[in-house]
Amino acid sequence: MPVKHMLLGSVLALLAFAPMSLQAQEPLKPVKLITAEAGNPDRTRQFFGQVVARQTVDLAFQVPGQIVEFPVIEGTSIAQGELIAQLDLESFELSLEQAQLQKEQAERNLDRLERLSSRTASQVQIDDTATALSLAKVAVKNAEYALKHATLLAPFDALVATREVANFTTTSAGTPVVRLHDMSEIRVEVDVPEILFLGLDQSDDFTISARFPSSDVLYPLDLREFNAETSKVGQSFRVTLGMNPPEGLRILPGASVTVIASVPGADTGGILLPKQAIFIDDNGDPAVMAFTPKEAEEGHVNKLLVQVVPAQGNDVLVTSGIAPGTEVVAAGGAALKDGQAVRRFAGFGN
Predict the structure, then answer these.
(1) Measured between alpha carbons, how far is 80 from 318 in angstroms, rounded to an integer?
(2) Which long-range contacts (CB under 8 A, 24 or more apart) does 307-312 make?
(3) Distance between CA atoms of 307 and 270, rounded to whole angstroms?
(4) pLDDT (tens digit, 9 = 90+) per residue, 200-233?
(5) Residue 273: CA atoms inside 13 Å, Cβ hemisphere, count?
(6) Using CA atoms, how far apart are residues 97 and 28, in angstroms rounded to an integer?
């Protein structure tokens, strides 16, 4: 019996000390931390825009004829002065040759009449022949013009958008045959609400950038022009922005783009924190949990009372209570105790 009593006493002793042992081995609670920084928040807005060409032209022949050369391919780039299309030149060359012969004949007729005496040729005949020579010269110029404009050349470095007609088509004067985009500068059009447009117009210190779906890079934009009247729907202004073509990224007209406009905010004299970092203590005062490191990843938290005012978006402005550079718990501070030991949250794998 004494042995049984001894065993029972040992078991009871182990059970009495078990909670203390488990408590000692309890892991530190992980907390996500952020660093308090001085608040001068930028006012940022995002708009959805569309890429447009610097200029788009529909080229047409100024004379009628049959297209016999049409080497351009849709979607390719061509340099200024390259051949776009050409009509059959035979009829134009014949017309020029005929006009030149008629001019030469008119010159001979006038020269012959001027050599004759006044009894043989009247002044009226001489005047009529001089007029015929003038008309012949005009005919030569018209024939030269027609021959020159029977060939279409690229007026600038361009992107071939569409071919409006097929090769060997007989086209009339003024009928578009090809559409070209001038992509020497990327233009972006965006509709900006009236109230935001007026705010940007009154600020000289603002930045505008573009982000394309295929890249996370921000490209700076410059203001080029804007419509001086609002649209009929939505009271917005159409704003055109410009940028140099980026290397390694092909951007075509019609592509979507996100335009980000940012106006620097004034120095607020406080610290910006997310709303989740602020909690209300038992006395009804706003507070944060500040982290004091003990080791590289471990430390403890202390409650600091703060004064806050609303700020833009999901932030609040802390006007007193903490200093810039202080590490505070990003969320869930109300669940922690003043002086509680914690560790940095370094990811779900740790």
Answers:
(1) 60
(2) 308/278, 309/270, 311/39, 311/41, 311/268, 311/272, 312/41, 312/43
(3) 10
(4) 655 556 789 999 998 889 999 999 998 888 877 6
(5) 34
(6) 100
Q: Which two tokens stand for residue 46?
A: 């995002």
Residue among 277, 149, 256 at smallest CA distance from 211: 256
Q: Is residue 285 within 8 Å of residue 272, measured between CB atoms?
A: no
Q: Which residues contact 270 (CB under 8 A, 6 or more apart)?
A: 38, 39, 309, 317, 318, 319, 320
> Is 189 within 8 Å of 56 (Cβ atoms)?
no
Q: For residues 30 and 195, what is the distance between their CA atoms, to the nearest angstrom?
A: 45
Residue range 104-137, pLDDT digits in tens: 999 999 998 888 866 677 888 888 999 999 999 9
Question: Are 217 and 225 contacting, i.e. CB atoms less than 8 angstroms apart?
Answer: no
Amino acid symbol at 5: H
DSSP bridge partners of 220: 209
Q: What is the rounded end-to-end Cα distance, in angstroms, of the chain?
A: 52
CA 166 and chain centroid, separation: 34
Enter the tokens of residue 146. Answer: 């027609």
CA–CA distance, 180 with 79 (Å, rounded to integer): 11
CA angle 145–147–150, rounded 5-degree value: 105
